[in-house]
Amino acid sequence: MEDKDKKIESLHLKLIPYFEKYGILLLLVLMILVMHILQPDVFLSWRNVTNVFKQISWQSMLALGVFMVIVTAGIDLSVGSIMMLSLMILAVVAKAGAPWFIVVLTPLIAGFLCGLFNGLGITLLRMPHPFIMTLGTLYIFRGAGNLISGGTPISGFTDEVRYLGHGRIDLQWLGLEKSQYLPVSLVLIAIVYIIFWIFLNKSKTGKWIYAIGGNPNAARASGINVNKILIIVYSLCGFLSGIGALILAGRTDSGYPNAGLQSELDAIAACIIGGASFFGGRGTVLGVFAGVMIMGILRNGLNLMDVSSFWQQVLIGSIIVLAVYIDVLRRDIGTRK
Amino acid sequence: MSSTSNPLLEAKGITKYFGTITALENVNLKVHAGECLGVVGDNGAGKSTLMKVLSGLYKPSAGSLFFQGKEEILESPRDSQNLGLEMVYQDLALAGNLPIGENIFLGREPTKNLGILKLLDFNKIKELTNAHLDKLKINVKSADQKVEELSGGQRQAVAIARSTAFNAKVVIMDEPTAALAIKEVGKVLDLINSLKKTGVGVIVISHRMDDIFTVCDRVMALFQGTNFAEASLSNTSRDEVIGWIMGKK
């Protein structure tokens, strides 16, 4: 009897990590199946699938940045505003006639500097919680974006500037039709996610980011410079928001005052749906990707079925609560009380 | 251990002010190789402050530290670790979300080069962890188990394993048995005894007379931030030590 209990227990111990890592993918696959059954002709068509990826392209960058911050038990409310400010700077620089390779660098640098500003504020000003610093910069960055652009949209970028957000990789050489192209933004998502997966899972700094989220005192006692790591994390989060701005510039061909409005909440929602814990130290890059995809597919699927966007809001909210409840149950099994 | 041999670690005249508060005044302490020193004192007597000075977390306002006869200035916990001076904190300072092996090597992870990238060497972490846990006779299911899945005693064992994974010469333990179930206390005390046998100098801060009288060779009492009394275990009694804690000689 005891042997049997032990077997079950060790099976649990073996299964839990897999469930923790890949459980969210099951939900994603389930959703894809349901959508396919509901919309068999359209949903899995080339055109629609690439559409979903184009729609989630810039959100996926914000979500990845916010995810890293959440792993440290922090929060970044300013990513939407960082993206808007970076986009506006790009637009102004482009309109001033700068060469394209300068124009594409500006949002990345601007985003990075905004993130650095957050990181320095949180650590040097010893803010009681990152919520406060980034709530402040949510207003500051958006205000700054409107100040430099005069609060009006600035449109019309060159093809080079629009490449990452709008470019197409032709697949006709594979014998496919002209309409069956690969969006450049999809390739970009894959590359960025793989790089950050390696960074977070295989590098010392990545491991320390998780350790800080698990127990900042343990990290400090281990000789890890916690403030330095936090500054790196917020800077990278800003940098990713800058990439988001570059993609958005390509997609919309315009810098506009409402860009990224409330997208910080979408980014947080994607992280939470993907299994990141608000208490830090928990969550995977794959989970965030699944979270972004689930939100994207939900919106896309409901649009295809002509469901009102109000229902989309209700459903996304419900999925957040459900996903976190599953997380609570999972922890009950996995953690010793 | 003869008191004439050079101490491994010696603190002389340690004084620490926090603003106008004097936490420590002119405190001396020494520990030899293979010896266990017990440090006792009431709450606020300055035990934890003294330990934080020894681990490099606080800089003393005055006084000096000698390690193997050489004066050392500790700027951070990393400095004391580099000397072989390790601390086991009362709150254990483990990251529950990480596996045992990654906790033991946290901040000092072995890496391998993959082209220009320096990546963590998980195989080596596992290998070294298993060897080290075996050496200390610590039983866990697997080095991959997360620390939050362990019992209090197992966590304490991991914390001690962590402190000794890098050729520690002195290990300082803050209340090593305070959070443990009674049946786990014995295991941790055994672990301390086996550390002593390997020539490590151990400093144990504890309220529990049982701990002190089981593993220590010498005991010193702090009272209101000063050295109050000190004796080898064979020359004192529980009642006397309890009296010291309350400021009575």
Written account of the structure:
The complex is a heterodimer of chains A (337) and B (249). Chain A has 337 residues and is mainly alpha-helical. Helix content of chain A is 75%, strand content 2%. Chain A has one domain (28-334): ABC transporter involved in vitamin B12 uptake, BtuC (Orthogonal Bundle). Chain A has helices at residues 2-38, 46-71, 79-95, 100-124, 130-149, 159-166, 184-202, 204-214, 216-221, 226-252, 263-273, 285-304, 309-334; strands spanning 154-155, 168-169, 182-183, 254-255. In chain A, the strands form 2 sheets. Chain A has a two-stranded antiparallel sheet. Chain A has a two-stranded antiparallel sheet with strand order 2-3. Chain A is globular, with a radius of gyration of 21 Å. By secondary structure, chain B is an alpha/beta fold. Chain B has a domain at 9-94 and 168-245: Rossmann fold (3-Layer(aba) Sandwich), CATH 3.40.50.300. Chain B has 8 helices and 12 strands. Chain B has helices at residues 47-54, 77-83, 100-104, 122-135, 152-163, 182-197, 209-215, 238-245; strands at 9-18, 21-31, 36-40, 62-67, 70-72, 85-88, 111-114, 117-120, 170-174, 201-205, 218-223, 226-232. In chain B, the strands form 3 sheets. Chain B has a 6-stranded mixed β-sheet with strand order 6-9-10-3-11-12, sandwiched between helices. In chain B, strands 2-1-4-5 form a 4-stranded antiparallel β-sheet, covered by helices on one side. In chain B, a hairpin with a 2-residue loop joins strand 7 (111-114) and strand 8 (117-120). In chain B, helix 5 (152-163) runs parallel beside helix 6. The longest helix of chain B has 16 residues, at 182-197. The two termini of chain B are 26 Å apart. The A-B interface holds A 10, 13, 198, 202-204, 207-208, 210-211, 213-215, 217-224, 280-282, 334-336 and B 57, 76-78, 81, 87, 89, 91-98, 102-103, 106-109, 111, 117-120, 141, 145, 148-151.
